Amino acid sequence: MELLYTGKTKNVFQLEDGHYLLKFKDDVTGENGVFDPGANTVGLTIDGAGLAGLRLTSYFYSKLNEQGVPTHYVDANFNDATMTVKPATVFGKGLEVICRFKAVGSFLRRYGAYVKEGQDLDSFVEVTIKDDDRLDPPISEDALAMLNLLTHEEYVILKQRTIEIAKFVAAELAKKGLTLYDIKLEFGRDAKTNEILLIDEISGGNMRAYKGGQYIEPLELEKIMLAE
């Protein structure tokens, strides 16, 4: 098992069978000790955050696989806080795709002159470049195509799949009385078939969920969602 990459919240290893192993860490993104799923830096460490993220990711990915949504998920080992995934290549140096149902986070910071916090948004999708130095700038469909990161046809698939997955997650949260405000997803191309796959994770670390207007922390979200 070879360490390929050390990320903010996960380490990536290559396995002998061609799959990859993601090791979830307790580090979470944020600033000044405050958790923020949209932040570009590790802001704090929360004991148990890695396993909680893995458990929730496994829950969502298993259901998506059953529904035929293409993902890189193979299986998970909760004892080691690891997830086995199929190999996939990212678009350029990586893209993040956000689906927004409410105006919060960076959307509110950018467009606060025109929207109020918590204002309803209609499954608004935006793509950003993974570039910490430039604070993950948003990028348009035309720019993605001009820079040879995504074709227009791939962008349509990416957007449709993002909305489909986000609405699925929102429906799952709603069963527990929770409201999904926004969620950040990542996609890549299957290394063998070139099919667009959902990659990385779906957990409290990359979404904002609320109950009665109160934000739910990642560990609490995992407890609520996986409670019998």
UniProtKB/TrEMBL annotation:
Catalytic activity: 5-amino-1-(5-phospho-D-ribosyl)imidazole-4-carboxylate + L-aspartate + ATP = (2S)-2-[5-amino-1-(5-phospho-beta-D-ribosyl)imidazole-4-carboxamido]succinate + ADP + phosphate + 2 H(+)
Family matches, as InterPro entries: SAICAR_synt/ADE2_N, SAICAR_synthetase
Pfam families in UniProt: SAICAR_synt (PF01259)
Keywords assigned: ATP-binding, Ligase, Nucleotide-binding, Purine biosynthesis
EC number(s) on file: 6.3.2.6
Ranges for domain SAICAR synthetase/ADE2 N-terminal: 3-215
Pathway entry: Purine metabolism; IMP biosynthesis via de novo pathway; 5-amino-1-(5-phospho-D-ribosyl)imidazole-4-carboxamide from 5-amino-1-(5-phospho-D-ribosyl)imidazole-4-carboxylate: step 1/2
Top-level lineage group: Bacteria
PANTHER family (UniProt xref): MULTIFUNCTIONAL PROTEIN ADE2, SI:DKEY-6E2.2
UniProt protein name: phosphoribosylaminoimidazolesuccinocarboxamide synthase
